[in-house]
Design goal:
Chain B: This is Transport permease protein. Chain B: GO terms for molecular function: ABC-type transporter activity. Chain B: It comes from Streptomyces griseicoloratus. Chain B: One of its GO terms (cellular component) is ATP-binding cassette (ABC) transporter complex. The complex is a heterodimer of chains A (about 325) and B (about 260). With about 325 residues, chain A is α/β, with parallel strands linked by helices. Chain A folds into 2 domains: about 1-220 and about 325-330, Rossmann fold (3-Layer(aba) Sandwich), CATH 3.40.50.300; about 225-290, Alpha-Beta Plaits. Helix content of chain A is about 35%, strand content about 25%. Chain A is built from 12 helices and 14 strands. In chain A, the strands form 3 sheets. In chain A, strands 6-7-8-3-9-10 form a 6-stranded mixed β-sheet, with helices on both faces. In chain A, strand 7 (about 155-160), helix 6 and strand 8 (about 185-190) form a beta-alpha-beta unit. In chain A, helix 9 (about 240-245) packs antiparallel against helix 10 (about 270-280). With about 260 residues, chain B is mostly helical. Chain B has one domain (about 5-260). Chain B has 12 helices and no strands. In chain B, helix 1 (about 1-20) crosses helix 2 (about 20-45), helix 2 packs parallel to helix 6 (about 100-130) and helix 7 runs antiparallel to helix 11 (about 205-220). The two termini of chain B are about 20 Å apart. The chains are: A alpha/beta (about 325), B mainly alpha (about 260). At the A-B interface, helix 2 and helix 3 of A face helix 1 and helix 5 of B. The complex binds adenosine-5'-triphosphate and magnesium ion (MG). Magnesium ion binds near residues 160 and 161 of chain A.
Chain lengths: ~325, ~260
Amino acid sequence: MSIIEAQGLHKAFDDGTVAVDRVDFEVAEGEVFGFLGRNGAGKTTTVRILTTLTRATSGQARVLGLDVVKHRSEVRDRIGLSLQQAALDPLMTGREHLQLIASLRRMRPARRTERMEELLTGFGLTEVADRLVATYTVGMRRRLDATLALLHGPQLLFLDEPTTGLDPQSRRALWSFVRTYRQSGGTVFLTTQYLDEADELCDRIAILDKGAVAVIDTPQDLKKGIGGKVLTLPATPEAREPAASVVGETACRFTDGVLQIDLPAGDDVLPSLLKRLHDSGIPLTGVTVTDPTIEEVFIRLTGEGLERRTQSDGSVAAAALARTVGTGRGGV
Amino acid sequence: MSALSGTLTLLNRNLREGLRSPVIAFVFPVLFPLFLITLVASSYERMAFIPGFPVTPYAAYMAPGLLLFTGMMGSGYSATALVLDAQSGFLDRLRLQPVRPLALLLSRLLFDAIRVVPAGLVVLGVSVLLGARIDSGPAGVVLLLVLCSFWSVAYGGVFYVVALRTRNPQAPLAMAPLSVLLLFASPAAAPPYLLQDWLASLTTWNPFTYVIEGIRALMTGPESGTVTEALLKALAVLVGLTVVTQIFVVPAFARLVGD
Ligand SMILES: Nc1ncnc2c1ncn2[C@@H]1O[C@H](COP(=O)(O)OP(=O)(O)OP(=O)(O)O)[C@@H](O)[C@H]1O
Ligand SMILES: [Mg+2]
């Protein structure tokens, strides 16, 4: 059964910005569904429409079989949402946040206490529960946000960029929470700019580009779809030319001291490529060959990698960079 | 019932938050009226010796206006808090809970009514020490505080209109001088016969005037007519002002919460 159905979902803001452009997709019950896209792709707007906070200009969305406009309160009762900017009140403690939501949801006092303790413990917040949120770290805020989304035991959870700004340890903790939640029967709709996160966590991924869905598939098939392996080599810009003469200009990317080369599928050019690089006096230390990551899929579909953002948004770029360096690519 | 329990839950949050950063909501309302009553009342003391001056000592004349001034100090605190909630996304979180949007607004208005009560009591106490009287007795004290709270809500409406229209949490700050204008164009500090003609006629258009006269009637007796008449006039002005401002506030708020 589809737990989320979006048909021709379209949102144009008053100023004419088209944030979501006739989007169609379905999310099956028990799935972790990823919405992947760069800044401004329309991730948050889609989440807001699905969670009844923003009205679509046209198109339809059904969540848990209920129309998000007509059955707004029923939908609100049964979903959990963790917003992108963990919306908390700095002048309230963590526990007071939980109490406020529990009381607005009119949870029975006995169940309330039990559930609160369970969540505070589960998310490692017991010690800071009585401190003002103003003193919380980004990680604590994110975790508190998650407890608030989960308090009433929703069967569908929306997480809008849940790991942005988290350190690697906290990211992994959140990932493991998502897996546990899924195992217990929950469905997760999550947005992310992190390709490795989508790869790691999601059963299916929609890649969103300028408001439109570019592709929806499983991480495995997305990777398969783009063909050959990727060669990565720490090098100077001069290494680009000899490589391009073998595999073509478009298959080579040079960023931040790293040359990435898409190897054509099937056709084994690796020996001749390495020979050519070696003959040109390019040191081959540190060369790795890996399966393509979702990042490559992203680049091919949207014509732009996350690195391009370096100029416009230093912090995000730094996070993306740290991630590229720190994970996945097997010894870059 | 559900709207009521939601309102009370949210009111509880507002009060706790107000007490945690008490300067604007709770300290200003005490500070400025006390400053005025101790400084101005003593330096204008001789005004009460002018022939025909209705009440002596001067502090007794000035007390009603200052009592109401508590309701004007810190106005905009709630409106600002509401816009900040919208900006931070906290309002979205609240919208996802089964609580009527009206409860969100109502809890803010109730906060405005409550926050001036302690200030009102202090100002009343100090006024009495300086020579003010409350002819209507203990029941009058209660009524005085109710009028003061009501004034805080009615006058505060102006700030909500500005905050919700601009969606700028700073905007209510720009409105603060309004209280001084209303104060001067009213019989708060001097009876109309001592004012310039144009100013005296302005006082009849100032809603503040009628609320002051209502309070004055409870403290030192009515300027003219009966206490009940003065109270009814004050009440009519308060209800009128509240209705007029809320006519603008409610739709603007509904747009804010997307209803
Ligand atoms: N209230 C609004 N009014 C006008 N335009 C808006 C509004 N909200 C979002 N937009 C625009 O809609 C587009 C999509 O925004 P959205 O927040 O959905 O992107 P996103 O994928 O969540 O981006 P990010 O990764 O930065 O969170 C952007 O161009 C944004 O500027
Ligand atoms: Mg977003």
